[in-house]
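re: ur question from yesterday

yeah so i grabbed the chain u mentioned. its 127 aa long if i counted rite. heres the sequnce exactly as i have it in my notes:
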Amino acid sequence: MGRTVRRLRQAHAVGDVTLSGVSVLARLAGTGPDSPGSLAELERVRPQAMAGTLAGLEQRGLVSRSPDAADGRRAIVSITDAGRAMLEERRSESVGRLARALEEFSPREREALRVTLPLLDRLAERL
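ran it thru and got these structure tokens back, copy pasting raw so excuse formatting
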């Protein structure tokens, strides 16, 4: 299982953007702007780790920060157009890699994966 997780992390990292960074971009693209604290909680990482992830994404122009209109002491993080473009490119590449990998599986093996993946999702949610 560890080897599988490592390979998935490598496959989903984009250049020097880590899987954690890609996950944050996907969350921001899907649910909209959010605070660093909330992102840390949702991603189940420490605030310090999220600060590092966001700093790297901001340095690359993939996210931007702005003051919270309701609480000026708090920042709100948004995905930029460059972040959306990078995320879409990564998704296209991932779909292609997955399709090529699945070509090597028999129909029976593909069905086993289809049945197993939702179970693994449920397991991951409970960890």
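noticed a couple things. The chain has a mean pLDDT of 90. also The beta strands are 63-67, 75-79.
anyway ttyl
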